[in-house]
Amino acid sequence: MNPHLTATAQLAEVTGPISLAIGVFDGVHLGHQAVLSRALSGARGHGGSAVAVTFDPHPLRVLRPSQAPRLLTSTTHKVRLIRSLGINHLLVIPFDAEFASTPPDQFIRELVGSCNPLHEVCVGHQWSFGRERAGDLELLRALGQELNFTAVGIPPVQVDGEIVSSTLIRSAVETGDLTRAARLLGREYTILGTVVPGDQRGRQLGFPTANLAAHNEQFPPDGVYAIEALRDGERLRGVANIGVRPTVATPDGQRLLEVHLFDFSEEIYGEDLEVSFRRLLRPEKKFASLDELRAQIVRDVALARRH
Question: The whole model's pTM is what?
Fold first, then answer.
């Protein structure tokens, strides 16, 4: 069975009239939130349901792999953020070469056919869709008139005179301007990761760490940070290192995110932590010995506790 038809057919299980918010939504930034909020208000106004429709993987991974950006949010993280806005229904459509070749009108007709009924489709003002990205807001409005739904194009959101975009946010995070990233996101920039076993190096130094297999791909600059970690609604303070651990070296020079949580001793392998970066304490550096590294970690922890 066509996996894309199977995905859209799930809309038949949602109580109508349905307001759809469609987009890639990487980062769920202020511009994305405007699209999602409009669908939510439309659903409430008509006694129906809001559904966020997104894609996995990022379309550029399929269309132009060499130009695919580092993700601000994995699908798991993105779903968590969208749900936090009050949208309970999400449709994640598998994006592959077959789906990319779908004519734009066919995609919309499949959505209409699955909804009971479709009330409106909310998208960003420059959203494009379908084969060769031939679909746009003008086509969507024409299909809306034919198929009896409303097409809503959301104007761009500006912050400090700039149009909010995932590209701007990636640049801000990459250069360490997390204050600017937060203004564009409408929230702190966070990294969601799953705790995995490490080499126990932190424990040997007297500072056990949670090693995170990060779902995000865009990291702040390498260094030591005062952080806060969210675990099942509980906020835990700590200190984190991002980088290649030059004193002890990581395999293949891989960048790691390691978190030491204050006054915490539970085993949390397999759990997810969402990490926010409160302050850069210092850049990552190589030490002459493990004793020097241990002494610096003591200072890092003391400074992070003060912040």
Answer: 0.89
